[in-house]
Amino acid sequence: MENVNEEAIVEAETNNGIKISADVVAVIAGVAVSEVPGVFGMAGGFAGGISEVLSGKKNLSKGIKVEVGEKETKIDVNIIVEYGTRIPDVAFEIQNRVKKAVETMTGLKVVETNVHIQGVNTDNQGAEETKPEE
Asked: Which of 22, 59, 112, 116 is deepest in the core (most CB within 10 A)?
């Protein structure tokens, strides 16, 4: 038997009887976040990362938590930023893009978009300084 994510069961009903699952909202938000400059990646749970590796598919809702009501939604985004980016600017851009994408595609009102910075990618920091001189 397959484990069912409780958030996936939650559905929203809009004016015309259209039901939109929380997973759909999470994927829309995930795509919007992935397009923001300065975002290195999503910070998700260990289990999500393992299933992503085993299936070979990218989990577009990784690091996104969604609460869906009848006509509105609340979204939490967990990200890792690139070293050197201005974090408040990245967070503001995420909030704007997620709100616009979700509201445009679903008709739900986004009442909150909370951005949680879980880490900073420093892999390329100082790469120019460590090159050997010729």
From this structure: 22
